[in-house]
Design brief:
Strand order of the largest sheet: 5-4-3-6-7-9-8
Oligomer: single chain
Number of helices: 11
CATH architecture of the largest domain: 3-Layer(aba) Sandwich
Largest sheet: 7 strands, mixed
CATH topology of the largest domain: Rossmann fold
Number of strands: 9
Shape: elongated
Bound molecules: S-adenosylmethionine
Structural class: alpha/beta
Radius of gyration: 22 Å
């Protein structure tokens, strides 16, 4: 029996409550191989009802009218097409800030929160912090977070994708974060030349997935922009580009911090050294995968 027919039959006789709707949606998600099916169903219903998880679970017997049921079913069907949950909801939370996201921009990932936390640590240790560059800013997650913590710094967020910058600009407007300049182009190139050699920190979460690994990723990732993922044949093209950019932007006591992919730490450490960085530090994520590499710039 096709999905919509089975749904109609199930809901024909009596108005289902929260519990039945969640059970139905979670079952559909499970059958389709979607991870965390209960949670995903809850997120969609919470979104439509505009209530918290606590309220949703406390009101599990609440009857749901046909209008809301229709909207819920539409969203469930979108999710069954493997459209990422965050694109359906229109947002993702990152380090306590709600960012708007949608097609054209990478959804910020939890491991990137570790990059943000390490970047804060480096910033706090700096004597003076005037200029920061976020290369490959995407939704603006890193630039806007750094701006909210270090309001005296001027932050340049650069992205080569105009679609990504559309979301970063929306987020900047909504969050009313002041000193963030968002520029379109390749790495350091759109930043005024007069600023070169004056940056305290360059932060980057570049694309780092091997081109050959992309077809095997989760179906949801196929909705995200390839330019945010594809790190070339060895996964390191983006990191090489950001190292070159950092060497031009940083002042002699400046630092570069990057997120990397699984198994890349050894190669990235070598690239940092080769490009003139010292005090190289690798930080593992919560699964103990080396995830963040930072180094201090010692200009030759
Ligand atoms: C992995 S995503 C990171 C986005 C965001 N910073 C985050 O952490 O979610 C990489 C971003 O870098 C951008 N990008 C890729 N190559 C670039 C380049 N050469 N110059 C500027 N941006 C680039 C992509 O468009 C994408 O938005």
């Amino acid at each position: 029996m096709n999905q919509s027919l089975s749904t109609k039959k199930q809901f024909k006789n009596k108005a289902p409550g929260v519990y039945q709707l969640l059970t139905w949606a979670a079952g559909q998600f499970r059958a389709c191989g979607i991870e965390a099916p209960q949670r995903q169903a809850q997120e969609l219903l919470m979104h439509i009802l505009g209530i918290s998880r606590v309220c949703l679970l406390a009101e599990s017997g609440l009857k749901i009218n046909s209008g809301i049921r229709g909207r819920f079913k539409d969203l469930v069907h979108k999710r069954l097409e493997r459209i990422p949950l965050q694109y359906i909801l229109g947002y993702e939370d990152f380090m306590g800030i709600r960012l708007q996201v949608g097609p054209g921009v990478l959804i910020p990932r939890p491991e990137t929160e570790l990059l943000a936390a390490e970047a804060y640590r480096i910033c706090r240790e700096m004597k003076s912090l005037r200029l920061i560059a976020d290369l490959g800013t995407g939704s603006g997650n890193l630039a806007l977070n750094l701006a909210s913590r270090f309001p005296k710094a001027l932050i340049y967020g650069v992205d080569s994708s105009p679609q990504a910058l559309y979301w970063a600009r929306r987020n900047r407007r909504r969050l009313k974060t002041g000193r963030v300049r968002l520029l379109c182009g390749d790495a350091e190139l759109p930043i005024p030349r007069s600023r070169y050699g004056n940056f305290s920190l360059v932060v980057s979460n570049p694309p780092y997935i091997l081109s050959s690994d992309i077809p095997g990723l989760q179906a949801e990732v196929g909705y995200e922009p390839r330019s945010a993922l594809d790190g070339g044949p060895d996964g390191l093209s983006g990191i090489r580009r950001m190292l070159k950019a950092a060497a031009r932007l940083l002042h002699p006591q400046g630092a570069l911090i990057c997120e990397i992919g699984m198994g890349q730490a050894g190669a990235v450490k070598k690239l940092f050294k080769k490009n003139g960085f010292v005090d190289i530090k690798v930080t593992p994520d919560w699964q103990n995968i080396p995830r963040i590499v930072s180094g201090k710039w010692r200009s030759p």
